[in-house]
Design goal:
Elements lengths: L4 H4 L10 H10 L11 H9 L6 E3 L4 E3 L12 E2 L6 E2 L1 H18 L12 H17 L4 E3 L3 H8 L11 H10 E3 L14 E2 L5 E2 L2 E2 L12 E2 L9 E4 L5 E4 L19 E3 L2 E3 L19 E3 L2 E3 L9 E2 L3 E13 L17 E3 L6 E3 L17 E4 L4 E4 L8 E3 L2 E4 L5 E2 L6 E2 L28 E6 L2 E6 L17 E3 L4 E3 L18 E5 L5 E5 L15 E13 L5 H4 L1
Parallel strand pairs: 2-3, 6-7
Antiparallel strand pairs: 1-2, 4-5, 5-6, 8-9, 10-12, 11-12, 13-14, 15-16, 17-18, 18-33, 19-20, 21-22, 23-24, 25-26, 27-28, 29-30, 31-32
Length: 550
């Protein structure tokens, strides 16, 4: 057996924190936080196919990730093989039962600040999970459903997010209903019913091999119950995470939430204990004046310290952007010449040349934050180090762009070249029609590449379609914008001059950009921002977000 080069390119790493959100990330085609594997995985797979050394203990049931099995041993279940499938709702119901037990045990509150019971929680989460996982027609392999839940329950004693290695079992449960030669679709690393890979919209019959502990990797899914841990040079190896109190080498070596400090995996600091940044503190704590503490300010949509979530009932409405010295929660609330001061929580004028950067990142137009000096400096030209802005260390002078691999300003990337660090490309006229802007950053399984904007019906994973089209995440193809009044859900279906917003019945539909005081999802008319209003917002454990985002 061999693995085709395309098979390793069909795996994505999704870094969204919880199980349902991981499914949404993979199915929607969102590429922020996802990465395609490198060629090192191909060599490692070819070297390790047929080797069995990884078995998952799920309370009496063995799951084998490789092929060579002791003939005298009980027959294990092959995660990557063929199996009978059932509607996705059966898997969704089992996941909801597990998740709701955690939600209740962790003291979560639902919208309107009510304490959910098991039945009402399951009733809410089951259809939401089923809808997220059914896009494109996915089904579930029946015999893997209890194994998926068993793997997830390994984390049920904590209020943190489920470990990604446990999610792997559930991803193996999700299948396209066809077999070799049948049509399959959508985005994500899902197998066909026969265990073969879905490539180019077809079930290929090519099977994926898992990588043994100690072998090279670039994403976590191929490591089975182990994790793909990268060293300082960015090279990954399948490893079992190191428990707290044991020696470590790299930041990612330790079993969460432990951190590698001075060569030892150490538990995060508790409230009142010393810290140098928020990552030193435990979940739900922030680093305030050198000590871990519960955050004093809870802004909807923001985290509450390390991993905590600010959650509450949301009522969004468009409002006029605020002037200097007016109260704010986010930069979007302030006029363009101001930013939201994170300490005073008021809009402040963006700092000028030589002044200290606002919030460590904000400067006036034409300036960027020099990280070494933490002062606002002129945007750098080609050959100089990129400067920091609110979106990241991507800022260069006009006509230059920040290279993703070096973070040095240079010539904007052309056709078939890797995208710049901020996912931009050259605005050159490629087809010779006298119009610039022919290229877009196209997120592919092989990385982010500058290519000609995609035509109607072309496969897409991000907004790389031709002008006047959008990337339909439910189909993974470029499509024409929806007409006014049409139902929408992802927020990008309505075209650049319209928006996906709630109507009088609280249903999301396409319509004009909303004006002042009108309901909004994220977008408003010019000069306005979408004000996220809440009732009794509170900091809650990460797992509680499922009651709000689904």
């Amino acid at each position: 057996m061999s693995v085709s080069p395309a098979s390793t390119d069909s795996i994505l790493r999704c870094t969204r924190p919880h199980i349902a959100a991981a499914a949404i990330c993979l199915l929607s085609g969102l590429s922020f936080g996802c990465e395609s594997p490198g060629r090192d995985d191909q060599d490692a797979m070819d070297d390790t196919l047929g080797v069995i050394d990884t078995v998952i203990d799920t309370g009496g049931m063995d799951i084998v990730l490789h092929k060579d099995v002791d003939p005298d041993a009980p027959a294990p279940i092959d995660l990557l093989g063929e199996g009978a499938t059932v509607p996705i709702a059966q898997l969704a119901s089992a996941i909801a039962e597990w998740e709701c037990k955690r939600v209740i045990a962790c003291g979560c509150t639902a919208p309107k600040q009510t304490k959910p019971d098991q039945a009402s929680c399951v009733a809410q989460l089951t259809p939401a999970i089923a809808q997220a996982w059914s896009n494109g027609g996915l089904v579930a392999r029946a015999d893997l459903i209890p194994l998926c839940v068993a793997a997830l329950e390994a984390d049920s004693a904590t209020c943190a997010v489920a470990k990604l290695t446990n999610v792997t079992t559930c991803l193996a449960t999700l299948r396209w209903p066809g077999k070799k030669g049948d049509t399959c679709g959508g985005n994500g690393p899902f197998l066909c019913a026969d265990g073969g890979l879905c490539e180019g919209g077809k079930c290929t019959g090519n099977h994926l091999g898992m990588i043994a502990v100690g072998q090279a990797c670039s994403n976590p899914f191929v490591c089975g119950t182990a994790e793909c841990i990268k060293n300082a040079a960015g090279k990954g190896t399948c490893q079992v995470p190191v428990a707290a109190g044991n020696p470590c080498t790299n930041v990612g070596d330790c079993e969460m939430p432990a951190l590698c400090k001075a060569g030892i995996c150490a538990a995060p600091a508790k409230a009142t204990e010393k810290c140098s940044s928020v990552v030193d503190c435990g979940p739900g704590l922030d680093c305030v004046n050198g000590a871990c503490a519960v955050p004093a300010f809870c802004a909807p949509g923001n985290t509450c310290g390390n991993s905590g979530q600010c959650l509450g009932e949301i009522h969004n409405a468009c409002a006029a952007q605020k002037a200097v010295n007016e109260a704010c929660k986010d930069d979007s609330e302030c006029v363009a010449s101001a930013y939201c001061n994170a300490t005073a929580h008021v809009c402040a004028a963006r700092p000028s040349l030589g002044e200290a950067c606002g919030n460590g990142v904000s400067c006036a137009a034409g300036l960027g934050c020099e990280t070494g000096k933490t002062t606002c400096e002129a945007l750098p030209k080609a050959g100089a180090k990129c400067l920091l802005g609110p979106a990241g260390p991507f800022l260069c002078a006009p006509g230059a762009s920040c290279a993703a691999n070096t973070f040095i300003c240079g010539t904007p990337p052309g056709e078939n070249e890797p995208c710049a660090a901020d996912n931009t490309c050259s605005d050159a006229d490629i087809d010779g029609d006298g119009k610039k802007g022919d290229l877009a950053c196209n997120f592919t399984f092989k990385g982010s590449i500058c290519s000609k904007k995609l035509a109607l019906g072309a496969q897409c994973q991000n907004e790389a379609c031709q002008d006047g089209l959008f990337c339909d995440y439910s189909t993974g193809k470029c499509a024409k914008p929806y007409a006014a009044g049409s139902a929408c859900k992802n927020g990008n279906e309505c075209g650049i001059s319209a928006a996906c917003n709630p109507n009088a019945s609280s249903k999301l539909v396409c319509g004009p950009l909303p004006g002042a005081t009108q309901a909004c999802l994220t977008s408003c008319a010019s000069g306005l921002y979408c004000d996220i209003g809440t009732a009794s917002a509170t900091c809650q454990p990460p797992v509680c977000a499922d009651l709000y985002v689904l």
